[in-house]
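Render this sequence as a predicted structure.
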Amino acid sequence: MNPNDLSAGIEKGRILYQLGRFDEAIQAFDAVIRIDRKNADAWYEKALVYSYMSCYEEVIQACDRSLQVNPEKAEAWFLRGLYLSVLDRCDEAILAYDNVLQIKPDSAGAWHNKGLIYERMGHYDKAITAYDSALRIHPDDKLVQENREKALNALKKK
């Protein structure tokens, strides 16, 4: 692959990924990475493919590689947080979402996911605070409203 064709290699990987040809998509992203190990987008796209393959540790590793190159890549922090949460590594997931929020303070999704994690950990007060932050951004989000209500009820029973 010609180094000038790296964006074409990434696009090829995306198309293969959308077609459900995950192994071939990984190969396409690896071809880009062999030429440019510091291609944050290729590492991130590879993480997305791994997420669809349910290879959670690989998702986190690929996100880490993307973030080594570009620590400001909010979507890589978000994906990392999501899969750390799936693996029940809650404290690490919270830190990942904190990084998202440093980059994109208006990420309602990061606030919502932080709330879900805090709720799972039994920190209902922190969950409510996170949900409130999400609702300040998207006040009509029914799912966040419902989760806030659940956390509030759990806090009252505590």
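Summary. The two ends are 60 Å apart (CA to CA). Residues 1-77 form a domain with the Serine Threonine Protein Phosphatase 5, Tetratricopeptide repeat fold (CATH 1.25.40.10).
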